[in-house]
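Page header: ASSEMBLY MODEL / two components / 342 residues total.
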Amino acid sequence: MTVTSVHKDPEALTMTVHASFGAPIERVWQLWDDPRQLERWWGPPVYPATVAHHELRAGGTMSYFMTGPQGDQPHGWWRVLEVDAPKRLVFLNGFGDANGEPDPAMPTMTFRVELSAGTDGATSMTVEIEFPSLEAMTQVMSMGMEEGFTLAMSQIDAMLEEGATH
Amino acid sequence: MAGVSLSTSLHWFAHDRRPDPSTHYVEHLLTQAKDQGRSVTADGHFTCNVNPNSLTYNHMVVDIRETNGADQVFHALADGTRRDIVRRTLECEHSVSALADLYPMSFAAVQKHVAVLERAQLVSKRPHGREQLVRANVHTIREAFELLERLEALWRGRIDRMDEILQHDQEKGGTP
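Prediction written out in full:
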């Protein structure tokens, strides 16, 4: 059973996502490590991601863009701080300008990804996203809407309902 | 591995009353109020049994996503006493002095907390005799939650897509 919980803490400026997958830890790590797999889940269906550069080592960078329904292409980047395959990945995630260069006017978030192998061949994953400020948290969330990240509220309710029946 | 079961923790909003994880907290309170025979006015406020003559005031509904009010809202909610004031005044109107009796702080200190909430449009005040009655603005609270839910929705979508990729492996009979 996949159990996901999301914990939002505006005081600590973090959002923490817990998930469990029915696949070995090495397999789940590939979702982050393989750019072709990463681009299949990073962007929402209406904003598919294209990973242009992907270097998953400490000090390495990743750059990507997403393509929206109107042809708009928001850019983003990672700067990798720590890698301990297949267990831990820490990186900064920011937004890029039209040329894909890091945009200093936009907020940068810190991502901490932890994977751990369960006894039954399952893998649990924790992603902690830390915002530098409340303003940044709000800015990112309002940008998220512009980039088509919004799921309809009814979809969320349906998912929550589904969760309640398990 | 079909389907993802989900639970949401909104503990920061109400430490002492964990919301039912399957419902939105505001919806939960609205239902609770109706069950307890309190009436909900057209603009989403509760009138309390203790004050049946309470008038309904029209409040401008502000979409905080379209203003710079979101920061103000989260700042206002990032304090335990203020969250408690919101929770209590969401259930029913309280006078400032009634609120002041609830906390180990001065009337002036509680009044300041109410003022912070009022600036963020999380509560509104209305005169009632010599008193000021405070009530929560359901609309603003709902907006604040929707803002946080957007980020959550992004990640729920990502987890779903990760799970789909992994399931696709199994259908093909092995990992690549």
